[in-house]
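The methods section describes the discrete structure representation at length, but only in general terms. An entry of this sort, consisting of the sequence and the corresponding backbone structure tokens, reads as follows:
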Amino acid sequence: MTTEGWLLKQEDGQGIPLPPSVVDWDYQRDLELECTVEVDLDAARASAALPEDAELALTTVWNSSGSGLRMLAAEERLTGGGRRSVHLAFTVLGRDSGGVLSIDTQVVLAGNLDNPDPTGPRRAGSILWQHHAQVRLQGDASQFPMAVVDFAEAGYPEDAPWYLDIGPNLDAATMGAVLLLVNSRTTLVLDAMRKAEKATHAERLIQSALRQDVVRLMIEHAVDDEDLDDGSTFEPDTLGHMLLGAVRTHLPDTTLAALRLMRRSDPSYFSARVQSAVGLFAKET
């Protein structure tokens, strides 16, 4: 199996090799991706000790660290023998993305199999070949909608650089429940967010501070909501799913009950735990 990798479609319809980052991305921009995989079915089965009639599948799954979504983007059943050229294409909506977008393409066993060869796979989903790609979208602030407003005119503390507005409905869609407001008067912050990976050292410090503060506010919101517990389940694109994801990602070995107790008994230690978990300034020092 071979592939030249994923292509990202531009506005003119032309595809370019998937870059390490998309510096001008925002949540209103959808990502159109495509690639071609050359599959030698006979060689794939032989190398995996599979019978000649074993059914295979070519699958693509994308995962966004910003939204927490993981979706099956494409699946192509592969039967018969010989060589196949399979074209894959899908679109990731901007509102479903953010952070780092990962794309895993795999050739797998399509169904359970009573394989006569004891060295060969038997379970559906057994991986015979895989290709991994990823692209970083602009900044961590792009994980949800952002608006630039004049804080003095909007009624917010006029010298505050940002404000994270989080709604109360845990079942609401994340993109409608969370809004990052950035003060138009804080040009240093705006420049740091726009430059993403091209930022200066000082601007990277601002990015780190913003990232840590946003995560801290999400974790605090989760801790303060008594309707949330470690067994709560929500649909992938909801506020509740995002809040629990923030806790589980950054503080995976601590229960919500323990975090609530920690925050009540020692709020300074709680804050320091979040700073450490998020890695405040870790990459900049």
Observations:
- The first helix runs from residue 41 to 47.
- DSSP finds eight helices and 13 strands in the chain.
- Residues 2-138 form a domain with the Immunoglobulin-like fold (CATH 2.60.40.3880).
